[in-house]
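Notes to self, Small-conductance mechanosensitive channel:
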Amino acid sequence: MYKLLRILFPAWLLLAFLAAALSPVIPAVAADQTSTGAPAAPVKINAAAELVKLQKQLDGMKQKVSAATMDNQLRELNDDTLKLAADADALATALQPEQAQIQAQLAILGPPPAAGAMPETAVVAQQRTALNAHKTLVDAQVEHAKAISKSAATLAAQIVDIRRNALRTQMALNSGSILSPGFWSPLFQTQSEDKQRLDDFFQDVQDAWLAAWEPGWRVGSGIFLALALLIWAFGSRLLDKPLGWFSINVLPEGRLRRSFLACATALATVLSVGVGAQLIYMLFIRHPDVSQQVQDYADELFRLALFSGLIAGLGRAFLSNQRPTWRLPTIADPVALAMRSLPPTLAAFILIFGAVEQMNRMVGTSLATTIFGNGILSLLVALTAAMAALRTNRVRRKMMAEGGQPEARSTVAGLIHLSTTVVSIAILLSLLIGYIALARFLTYELVWVGMIFSCLYLLIHLVVDLCDSLFSPHTVVGQRIKHSLGLDDRHLEQAATLLSAIGKTVLILLAAVALLNGTFGSTTPMALFDKAVDMWGGKGLEKLNIVPAHVMNALIFLAIGIYVLRSARRWLDKDFLPKTKMETGMRASLVILFSNIGYILITLLTLSTLGIQWNNLAWIVSALSVGIGFGLQEIVKNFISGLILLIERPVKVGDLITISGIEGDIRRINVRATEIQLGDRSTVIVPNSQFISQNVRNATMGNAQGVATILLTFPLDIDPEQVRNLLLETYRDHESILAAPAPSVTFSQLSSNGIVLSVTGFVNSPRIVANVKSDLLFEILKRLREAGIALSMPQKMIFENSPMPPPPVEAPDQTER
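result:
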């Protein structure tokens, strides 16, 4: 099928010339048919009343056309307008015999006598005056009828343009199913206006073809035609060999060879098709007598040939059946072989029916012919896409049944496969239920989006592989850059990562612009509805009043923007910043700030893409101001505080802080609140405004050192110098205590309880103070016991209550006994 693509362009032109040569010529009515015979008898009609009636009908139709929104209304108005034009022509034709009779009577009377000649009788003069007045009236009526006919024809052409524009923009327009007889009517009964216009166009093309083979032009035309055919037949094959040799022998080993060869294969196909089309273009338009219409059509065909060549070239680059081991995407060989004929077939369909659509647009054919061409193109493209999905699934199932293992399909590949299948089914359903415009829109979107993403895939691989190869320390170019600029391997890796990220970002932005514009060229059939419809209307789906292109562009931009932002954030956090000398907290703050600003910009640009003007958001701002005054002030205060924290950075991720009696490490600074992790691994969420309005202790700000201070109380009878030396020796022997500033012992207090000594030492970080103090206490107690030095015990005064002595026992009275 690829050979078909390379020969289809001139073949279609030759078929067009053949059709122009064999097209039947409508016999013209001889102008002097009535002049040779007797003049016909005048038809007695009330011309004045008929003209008033026709003029009222014309005015009413103009009003109806300006208010019509339904396609069936415009269709009926078009038929009524054509009937009105025919009635006006019939009235003008009916008045011509009367006009001829008056002229004959005036000829019999002859011209009025000249000055000085014998005067004519009063009866003759009166009759001539009456005939001249009648002739003036009839002439005015004929001119009026012709003017009404011309206005009606112009109105009919305007209605056709309105319907054609509606067909191109209003996707909810129901124009009839492809199964209806009306859809296939242009094949069996061609309207006289279409036939006449096509005959005139084919005659211009035939004249241009014949002019190209006139003596003096014949040799150049033959050379152009022969070169074009040779380039189409062998151009891409001849370029494949030197490109393969260049990839193997010149480019360094690595992925760059595959990505370069894939891009070069696509470019070679476009180049061969484009050069051949340019030669055919020169063959036609180099003659000075070629009509402007043929020149414009040749321009359109040249651009369309480039577009079709790009589709075929992308297919060859992705499938790479000539060099399967060099295939860039992971596609199994049986799958690639099964899909070999599909890209050229799709390119051929786009070329043929795109040329037909451009011809219909330039010639101005009827709407039925335009609908027929759009429907057939949508049907063929949908069947081709569905066939690709079916073939892929069938080959994969066959491979699995035979015990083989198909290629591992990624999630993105699965989504592409599913999306293509769903869109193909949607196109077929739209054609079946009669929404030809929707099917055409989906068809061109499928082709355009697929081509954009294919080009983006190839170019991203090429840019990344090129940057990695240029700045690799293992390649010649990388070694030269390294030695000439005095860089090390780390700097080369940073440069490769940064340049590849910039390249990918630029390519993604260009792809987004191409998707949003949806056009390959302003005059090609790949315009893909770049001028969106302002309002939809009609029955069924036509009752929806929406602006589809704005919504679609906004969704596309939002999805691409979020993907680009997340990819850039991931690249910044994982690839680029770790290769710098920034601390962890600084890197985290930069990533969070970058994300917040990116989301704000994406939101604003998405609203702009939807067509929302900023001056229209005044009522939203007013409503938000009232809400902020009542219930959103805390949220806004925390949001502004979060931005201040990210910009001024009094605290950052990883700092050890103390706020409101809470001490812990900052894990994350969000837009509204900050997460603080405590020592037990629990998390406290603190509003950002507290960091601005309260006192915050940042123990790690400015590379702060930790202080390990221990207070000890000794008895009054100790030797202070001995204890001081023992404490200093213990601190100096600990590996975590810094030598500068040196440890010190301070005589803190002298009281009745004993001597209080304070020993202080510095460590690298406040985070290790607790562990260092614990180790020091263990060591100090051990050394004090070895030296026989005891810590002071606080004196206690103990009060004990003695028991009361028992009362004396009196002796019994002996006398009483």
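- Residues 122-169 form the longest helix (48 residues).
- The chain has a mean pLDDT of 76.
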